[in-house]
Design brief:
The complex is a heterodimer of chains A (about 300) and B (about 260). Chain A is α/β, with parallel strands linked by helices. Chain A folds into two domains: about 210 residues, Rossmann fold (3-Layer(aba) Sandwich), CATH 3.40.50.300; about 70 residues, Alpha-Beta Plaits (2-Layer Sandwich). Chain A is about 35% helix and about 30% strand. Chain A has a six-stranded mixed sheet with strand order 6-7-8-3-9-10, sandwiched between helices. In chain A, helix 8 packs across helix 11. Chain B is an all-alpha fold and about 260 residues long. Chain B has one domain. Chain B is built from 13 helices and no strands. In chain B, about 45% of the residues are buried. At the A-B interface, helix 2, helix 3 and helix 5 of A face helix 1, helix 6 and helix 13 of B.
Chain lengths: ~300, ~260
């Protein structure tokens, strides 16, 4: 069952197409990274999925509710963290949360209880009665996340949740997102922080007006760069390059200093054969590790190449 | 309705922290209340025979038989009485102009519109937040004027001419509608500008018909009667309903979010 499904979802502003025939499905309980450059249409997509703006064409179903038909229900079922925290500076942290919780149909008693729960969870309980205007950027961001959660939505849209936060606050937010995933919530995360996306996301979509590619981070790496192994040797690695190249399962091998970079399909099965061949040829193997391309490599490859999904 | 009350409560909580805005709400109405009392008191001591030539005096039978001292006070008092209709226009424009613009500048509009609040609930809450203080201030200052007037008028007859049934009816029936028209206009404009001053300035156009009424009475073209007060009240209530409906139609959530925020 998918929490979010879109089919050919499109939004144009006049002649400018912001989102072009977006088709995707986000499984329930997944952290879904939605990556793309500035102006790619990420915010427009989120606004459509949160029933804030209507699509020009196409359709979407969020938690079983069709966009354009059950918009009020969609709003009840999703929480939205906007790029800017957007809080009432003259109200206290508690008043901010209670206000929004009540707009999400919670009665006064439950709204207070939810405010307390999330203020405690995010370490803001001691400052609950202070006006938000005096809060640091990190505190405001935490409070905005608490607001998005105040009605316990099964789906959360988080737009740059750690942007502008110091490393400690960013880590707290990331840990909190992991807790939310553990609770079974679906999280639709837009971010420019690629290591963060790599750490948090089960599924990633790279998007620039159109969907460029979607998949699990490891799958995207394998699809774009293949799989491979790095073998660090004691001594001259170039002398053993031919050994690796002569193995039938090796697609390519290169040398960089004392390290061999070997492209192959199945490191789990093929690494033992590779290492055995090298050792039998007299190589002294120091380390063997998977050759990992960063998510940044994947992202840049896709965004620069403008590759379209088949 | 419940959500409209939640919004109303939030608006007032925010207003409580805005001291400059509170002073703007209180000082002009106080000046508009005290100034007429001072002027009426002063004119009672310096009668002017030219007052009899005023169109208002010629046209309005209520002034018949008054002495020159009484006439000066009565004419001025009647004119100043109309100024109390400015209150329901002044007060809400100050609060309402911040209503949607404030959400934009705070960047709270998007999270607010992301909640399942309906447009009419949002607008009703915003309107009530301005409307209730406007009516309360108008009627309170009018009451202060009525009570203090007793101390400065030269005779009971002057008092009866100024605090006439027509004037009381006009204030009771028209003030809420006038306030609502102003609030609806300001909230609608507030959604389409990014600066509260712009909203206030554009909405100030609503004051023009009232000034026309003021001068029409002064030159004797219009004589306020209970019937006229009731007709005016009904007409304004109709216009207020139109203004509120118009604000609801003009408040396009998507446009406001994508074009104006």
């Amino acid at each position: 069952m998918h929490a979010i499904e879109t089919y050919e979802l499109t939004r144009a502003f006049g002649d400018r197409v912001a989102v072009d025939h977006l088709t995707l499905a986000v499984p329930r309980g997944a952290v879904f990274g939605f990556l793309g450059p500035n102006g790619a249409g990420k915010t427009t997509t989120v606004r459509m999925l949160a029933a804030l703006i209507a699509p020009t064409s196409g359709s979407a179903v969020i938690e079983g509710n069709r966009l354009g038909v059950s918009d009020q229900e969609i709003r009840r079922r999703v929480g939205l963290l906007t790029e800017s925290p957007g809080l009432y500076d003259r109200l206290s942290a508690r008043q901010n949360l209670v206000f929004f919780a009540r707009l999400y149909d919670l009665d006064a008693h439950r709204a207070e209880a939810q405010a307390e729960r999330y203020l405690r969870m995010l370490g803001l309980w001691e400052r609950r009665d202070d006006p938000v205007g005096g809060f640091s950027r990190g505190m405001r961001q935490k409070l905005a996340i608490a607001r998005a959660l105040s009605h316990d939505p099964p789906v959360l849209f988080l737009d740059e949740p750690t942007a502008g936060l110091d490393p400690e606050a960013a880590r707290t937010v990331r840990e909190f997102i992991k807790e939310l995933r553990a609770e079974g919530r679906t999280i639709f995360l837009t971010t420019h922080n690629l290591p963060e996306a790599d750490e948090l996301c089960d599924l990633i979509a790279v998007f620039r007006t159109r969907l460029l590619r979607i998949g699990a981070p490891a799958t995207l790496r394998a699809e774009l760069f293949g799989r491979g192994t790095r073998v660090q040797l004691a001594g001259d690695a170039a002398a053993f390059l031919h050994v690796a190249r002569n193995l039938a399962f090796v697609h390519a091998a290169e040398v960089a200093g004392d390290t061999l970079h070997v492209a192959l399909d199945d490191p789990d099965d093929q690494n033992p054969h590779l290492v055995r061949a090298l050792v039998e040829a007299g190589a002294a193997v120091r380390y063997v590790e998977a050759r990992e391309h960063s998510l940044e490599d994947v992202y840049l490859q896709l965004v620069r190449g403008g590759e379209a999904t088949a | 309705m419940n959500k409209a009350l939640v919004i109303l409560q939030k608006e007032w909580l925010e207003l409580r922290g805005e001291r400059t805005l509170l002073l703007t709400l209180i000082i002009p109405p106080l000046i508009l209340t005290l100034m007429p009392l001072v002027v009426i008191s002063a004119i009672g001591r310096t009668p002017d025979e030219d007052t009899r030539q005023l169109g208002a005096v010629v046209a309005d039978p209520a002034f018949a038989g008054l002495s020159e001292r009484e006439l000066g006070q009565a004419v001025l008092g009647k004119q100043f009485g109309l100024l109390f209709l400015l209150m329901p226009l002044l007060v809400p424009s100050v609060i309402a102009s911040y209503s949607i613009v404030g959400e934009k500048t705070n960047r709270t509009l998007e999270p607010l519109l992301a909640t399942p609040v309906r447009t009419w609930e949002l607008l009703l809450g915003k309107c009530l937040a301005s409307l209730i203080p406007a009516i309360a201030i108008t009627w309170t200052t009018a009451l202060i004027f009525v009570l203090a007037l007793r101390l400065v008028v030269v005779s009971d007859r002057v008092y009866q001419v100024i605090v006439s049934g027509s004037w009381v009816l006009l204030l009771l029936l028209s003030a809420p509608s006038l306030a609502l028209i102003m609030v609806a206009a300001t909230v609608a404009i507030s959604g389409r500008v990014n600066d509260p001053r712009s909203a206030q300035q554009i909405a100030a156009v609503v004051v023009v018909p009232l000034l026309a009424l003021f001068f029409a009475q002064l030159i004797g073209v219009l004589v306020l009667s209970p019937l006229l007060a009731i007709i005016a009240g009904a007409a304004l209530a109709f216009l207020a309903a139109l203004a509120l409906g118009g604000a609801n139609v003009l408040f396009e959530r998507e446009n406001i979010l994508t074009r104006w925020s």
